Fold:
Amino acid sequence: MKITKLEDLKEHLEDSIKKAVTLAPKRNFEESVECIMVIRDVDLRHPENRFRLLVKLPNKVAKIDKIGVFADGPHLSQIQSTKIEDAIVEVIDRAKLEVLRSKSRATRKLARKLRIFIASAPLMPIIGKYVAKYLSPLNKMPIPIPLDQNIIDALNDAKHTVAVRLSTSPQIATRIGYKSMKIEQLTENAFTLVSAVVGKLPSGLSNISDIYIKTTMGPPARISLE
Structure:
């Protein structure tokens, strides 16, 4: 049956999530659950058809998240004086940012290790100059946070946020949660993600041919929209 309406997709997402989680062999670590969308009939040679999108999901996407915080001014004291739960947080102040400027290996390692980054807005020009070339290819450019916004609130939002990008390849893939999450929570996250992407595509849902749900090392469960 061809799926033409978003509301008809939620049940299929839930079934595929159940299948993917059930079929995944047991591992001695917490696997993530990923959603992959195959895009069709979108000419990515035209810049107007490419996009980067930050999607805030209803539920956290990692049991223990890994978040980088480029902090300056009041943000630095806020993050240093607060105990953060459910996340490993790497704080990079202005001085550390200057050090990273000349340490490409350390910067690459940092970019790979952390899932998402946020940054005090005044640091964004320096980040763009020193480390963007390592973060941008991984779709991990930081979310800028104004100095009058509490950085802890932004950090908690980041635990729910994924960055998706449609650029040169007709595919979008991102984490939507972790294997031990409730199926209902994973379904909510998946549906929110797909809805956000559909809203950016020129012909909406008809620009998605297939959706795959899989754990990190498990087999994929496919939803065909055709």
